[in-house]
Amino acid sequence: MISAALILLLTTIAISLAAFRNPELLDRLMLHPDQVYYDRRWYQMLTCGFVHGNGMHLGVNMLSFFFFAFPLEQYLGSVGLVTLYLASIVLANISTVFEHKDDPNYASLGASGGVSAVVFSYILFEPGTKLYLFFIPIGIPAIIYAVGFVAYSYFAGSRTTGINHKAHLWGALSGILLTVLLSPEIRGELFRGVGGLGH
What we know:
Blueprint: H1 4-21, H2 23-29, H3 33-39, H4 44-47, H5 55-100, H6 112-125, E1 130-131, E2 140-141, H7 142-156, H8 165-182, H9 184-196
Antiparallel strand pairs: 1-2
Helix pairs in contact: 1-2, 1-5, 3-5, 5-6, 5-8, 6-8, 7-8, 8-9
C-alpha cells in the first residue's frame, strides 16, 4: 500500500511545479483573504498549501515534510496523517483571513502551516528527539526547539516581514491539538501527566 505521506509529497510538488509555469493557476490557488471572506472562495484556505513562491520555498517545506511525515504516519496511520495535515493548513490560515480580509493586496501561499503541524505532532510522540537545522551541526532538543519556534513565530508575526509567521504558529498549535484528538496514546499520556500533578 502506497504511503499517504508520499502521495501528499508528490501531489504538492506536482501542483507547485505546474503553478510555477502558470501564473493564473498560482493566483487562483493561493490565499487571498479578501476573496475568501467576501467572495466565499473557501477552497483557497486549503489549496494555498499546495503552491509555493519559488523552488527554495518548495524545497525547504518538502524536505521538512519528508523527514517528519513518514515516521509520523507510523504513529497516526494514513488517515490520521492526512487529516492532521490538511486540517492544519486550513486552521493555520483562519487568523490570516480575518486579519487581512480588507487588504486586497495581501496574499499568502505555502505548506508551512501543515508542515509545522507535522513537526510538532512528531515532537509529541518523540519529545526526546534532536532536530538538526540548516547550518547548525548540533542537535537541538525537540522541546527547546518547540518553545523557541512558538516564541519566535509569535513575536515575528507582529512584524511585516513578507513571511506569514502566524500561519506557522497556528499550524504548530493545530498539530498539537489534532494529535491529542487523533491519538489515544497521546491522550493517555496527557491525562496521566495531568493526573500526576494532583499527587
